[in-house]
Each structure stands twice: as structure tokens, then as C-alpha cells.
Write a structure and sequence with these properties.
Elements lengths: L18 H9 L7 H13 L10 E5 L6 H12 L5 E6 L6 H11 L13 H12 L1 E7 L9 H15 L6 E6 L1 H7 L3 H6 E5 L7 H11 L13 H11 L3 H18 L14 H6 L19
Parallel strand pairs: 1-4, 1-5, 2-3, 3-4
Helix pairs in contact: 1-11, 10-11
Length: 301
């Protein structure tokens, strides 16, 4: 039996599975620790649950689509699911006004926001939930310009976020959005002073990227080593992915799909010498192109 030393020890039975089982494994999303994200997680861990402060610190993690925000959120939810200090999460989504934002936050604490008696004393009920469940942070995904476009939406949403991070709630707000969300938050001086603005930058051809590729390869059920972390592999993947995290993962997965279906059993970096889009399209994946953030225009309403 092949030793499969290029694969993690606990996964060395997987290359001998049938093709359908291996394809299912490759399709799964996995978390690969990286040095640049390790620092982000360490900072969040240091921030939340701050005691003895009038206002607890908060953060906006921002980056373009495909930069890994959703994966970070899921990882945070997983990490804190087993800790004494808990976090809640909401997805602000698109075109939300401030009242809907209030509803989403209340619902995350298990509090109904219906009409009549159900909508009474929501503040008290939220406070009770925070204390009972030891909630120290709220993750807010998709804080984009669509939900903060008008001056009235901006003012109401900012006021709500200030309230949550101060007395009597004292919970850190960890927001995730794009560059326009960062620009909007910076328009409020108090929000600017309370929030750490943490950019998610594209990959560069450095040791951290090399380690990421090598570790990802060690999770894949292929019978032969591919060495996609080689100098040539890194260079080609960076070029074709534009350094965008989502693109990098899609390229790796599609190379692995091809390795299984072709019978080569290794990821061939020559397949991405020129244009990898056709390979990705074959397996139902679309690569993102870098986008230039648009200026936020606040409408009066």
C-alpha cells in the first residue's frame, strides 16, 4: 500500500476511496490557518470581553468580494461555540433600513420583534440575554453601502452600533464589509475612534502563501504529490487568481478535480499556464476579477 506521505496522516486512507467519494472530499470547504489571519484572530480575542471600560472596542474587517470574510465569520462562530464567552451573528444583507437592522439584532438574541406586546421592552430583554448567555460580541456580516446609503440610515445605524458597544450592553461589534462600508463608518468621528479598521489584502508570493498551498495540498485525496507550493506553482496561481482568496481555493479545487477525473492523480500547474477560466468553468466555478471600489454617495431622505 502506498504510504501517501504527502497527505496528512489522518487522511491517508482517502486516496484509495472511489472517485465520487474523493470528489466530495475535494468539494468541501476547509479552514487553513495562516499567519496574517492568525494576527486578526488574536486581536479579536484580545478585544472582546473587555471589562472595566466605558466603551468596549469594535472592529470593521473589510475587503472586496472573495477576500475570505465569510470563511472568517464561520471560523469565529466555530471557535467561540465552545467557549464561555459567546458571540452572536447577523447578516445585514442588502437594502436594509435601520428598523430591519434592529429586528435582525433582536432576533439574534432570540427576541421576537412582532407587533404589540412582543415588541415591548426589547432593550431589557436583550440585556437579559446578553447577561444570561455571556455574550461579548456581535458579528455583523455584509455591512455594505446598500444598508447605509442615506444620511438617515447612516445616522440611525451608527447610533445603534454605538449603543451596543457602550453601557449597558458592552458588546464588541465585529463588522464585515467592503471598502465603501469602511468609508461610511469613518464619516462618524465616534465610530472612527471606536473601530479598528482591518483590511483583508490579496495574497502575495511570500512564505505565508507557500505554507497555505502546501497545507491545502496535504488535505487533498490525491495519490501523487503535486508540489503546487513550488516557485512556479505559486507564481502561476498568484497570476491567475489576482491574489484573491476565493479564486485561489477555486483553482486548487479544479486542479484536484481534473487530477481525479483524468487519472493523473496530481495537480498539473501547466494547466494554468495561460487562462485557467476554461478549467474552472468545466467544474462550475467562476473566478472573480479585481474590482475598484465605488465612492459612496449619501442621499438625503
Amino acid at each position: 500500500m502506498n504510504a501517501y506521505n504527502h497527505i496528512l496522516a489522518e487522511k491517508r486512507n482517502e486516496p484509495d476511496l472511489d472517485n465520487n467519494s474523493r470528489i466530495a472530499i475535494i468539494k468541501r470547504d476547509i479552514w487553513i490557518p495562516t499567519k496574517k489571519l492568525d494576527q486578526l484572530f488574536a486581536t479579536i480575542d484580545f478585544m472582546i470581553g473587555s471589562e472595566g471600560r466605558l466603551v468596549v472596542p469594535s472592529m470593521l474587517v473589510w475587503g472586496p468580494g472573495g477576500s475570505g470574510k465569510s470563511a472568517i465569520i464561520e471560523r469565529l462562530k466555530h471557535v467561540y461555540s465552545t467557549r464561555d464567552k459567546k458571540i452572536n451573528s447577523i447578516s445585514a444583507g442588502m437594502n436594509l433600513d435601520s428598523s430591519q437592522l434592529v429586528d435582525l439584532i433582536c432576533n439574534s438574541f432570540g427576541i421576537s420583534t412582532g407587533a404589540g406586546k412582543q415588541s415591548l421592552n426589547r432593550t431589557t430583554r436583550v440585556l437579559n440575554a446578553i447577561r444570561a448567555e455571556n455574550i461579548v460580541a456581535l458579528l455583523m456580516d455584509e455591512l455594505n453601502d446598500s444598508g447605509l446609503r442615506t444620511l438617515s440610515q447612516q445616522k440611525n445605524s451608527m447610533s445603534l452600533m454605538k449603543y451596543l458597544s457602550g453601557p449597558p450592553c458592552y458588546i464588541s461589534i465585529i463588522c464585515f464589509g467592503d471598502l465603501t462600508a469602511s468609508e461610511v463608518l469613518m464619516k462618524d468621528d465616534q465610530i472612527y475612534r471606536r473601530y479598528v479598521h482591518w483590511p483583508l489584502t490579496p495574497w502575495t508570493n511570500d512564505q505565508d502563501f507557500c505554507d497555505f498551498l502546501a497545507t491545502y495540498e496535504s488535505h487533498l485525496p490525491l495519490k501523487l504529490p503535486s508540489n503546487i507550493s513550488s516557485s512556479a506553482g505559486r507564481r502561476r496561481i498568484i497570476k491567475q487568481s489576482f491574489g484573491i482568496m476565493d479564486n485561489v481555493v477555486k483553482i486548487i479545487k479544479c486542479l484536484a478535480f481534473e487530477a481525479v477525473f483524468s487519472g493523473s492523480e496530481h495537480m498539473d500547474i501547466n494547466l494554468i499556464e495561460n487562462d485557467v477560466n476554461l478549467l474552472c468553468m468545466r467544474y462550475g466555478e467562476a473566478l472573480r476579477r479585481p474590482t475598484v471600489a465605488k465612492q459612496v454617495k449619501l442621499e438625503r431622505r
